[in-house]
Amino acid sequence: MGYLLYSLTFLALLTGTALYLTRARWLPSFQDRVHSIRFPGSDYLYSRLAPGGSFEDDMEAGLSSANFDLTGNVEGGDGRAGLDDAAKREVLRIMKKRRLKFDEARRVYMEQRFKENGIGADGRPRDPKFVSFS
């Protein structure tokens, strides 16, 4: 009985060490699977955005940076509705899922949009019939 306990303890210690040392390989795919599980009410955790909010609400949600500055809109009293709601949700999802800052998440979002619309990373269309005279 004692050997069984020692064997199980050794096996658990060996498995834990192997998982810890190889976590860079398996952890990202595991996190993607865990984050893809939808729990009731999980849409409202940490990033509750009012539809049709203002630029001030967007700044408070973390959707502003030195490269994408919204302070001019807020200080100028811009009365528009703020940023696009669907894009805000997607950028915030990318920020949480990949743990990126706003500028990087915005870049990833735009690359995804380019890919969906058949535009390459260099900004040129990927249409085989495309002809450019420059």
From TrEMBL:
<keyword id="KW-0732">Signal</keyword>
<protein>
    <submittedName>
        <fullName>Uncharacterized protein</fullName>
    </submittedName>
</protein>
<dbReference type="Pfam" id="PF09435">
    <property type="entry name" value="DUF2015"/>
</dbReference>
<comment type="similarity">
    <text>Belongs to the UPF0357 family.</text>
</comment>
<dbReference type="InterPro" id="IPR018559">
    <property type="entry name" value="DUF2015"/>
</dbReference>
